[in-house]
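Anyone? Bumping this.
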Amino acid sequence: MEVYLIIVLVLMILGSLYSLNARDLLSAVVSYGIVGFGLVICFLLLQAPDLAIVQVLVEVITLIIMIAVIKNTTRKELFTGYDAKAFVSAIVAVIFTILFFYVFDKMTGVLTGFGQHLTRMSTAYLEGAGVTGSANLVTGVVFDFRAYDTLGEATVLFTAVVGVLTVLRLKGKKKGK
Amino acid sequence: MQGMTIIVKKITQIMAPVIFLFGLYVIVHGHLSPGGGFAGGVILAAAFILQILSFGSILPSLRREEVWLELLESTAVMGFLVISGLGLLLASFRIFFLNFINRGTVGQLLSGGIIPLENIVVGAEVCAAITTIFIALTVYQDEVTQ
């Protein structure tokens, strides 16, 4: 399984690299789709069908919206060339990448192996079916143990819609009637 | 927004009801099988977006649908709060999100207390939200090109 995972991850990295360098914005968006759909395969390989369903749907709808935006604006990338700022940003990015890898390496040595839960809470979550009455553990966690999170997510989505409508509404509601 | 060719329209006529039904199935069976409110809501939104993309639409009807979708979304968020607040009311103001309905047998469709209700409400909210974003972009484009 891990071999397949590595192949998919390498494909995802290649897709994102191509989408950074593509001249045509449409092909950049399409190759960025590789990342999303590769993530779907990763979720399926790691046995998380709930996440895979949500990811594939969100990826499709995001692609549709982004392609609609590109069709209505421009397909050319407005690129002016590198300046001094770009080199500073690149150096900072490299330094932070090395730092993150170092800290990540230190941290993962301390934790238990992948898939082995250690904390008290995850053991309680795994008994969710009997406690919450939901056969699907993910739903049990999302709507019972961590319902506050779900309330927050719903609020975030609501706020996003209000923001989009606020930005995009040109004429506004008519005054009076 | 312009519609597409007869092939796309015909396939949409066949597929959109199936997609819609599948979204309802995923929402209602959220506490039994993989899926749930978020995934099912996005499937429902996909059915609506497919219809708007393939058949096209005119500005007034889009505006009308936008109003109804905003109403549905606000009602759904309100419903989620009401369901969670009812638990607070029944537990003498101590437990938010109390599962106050009988949980029943694990694995049956009518079980899980308030979890299926929350799934349905969140599904309606997600469907309305994503369709509203899509319609807002379409209306914006039509308003600009006019």
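Late reply, but here is one note on the structure posted above: The CA atoms of residues 118 and 169 of chain A lie 50 Å apart.
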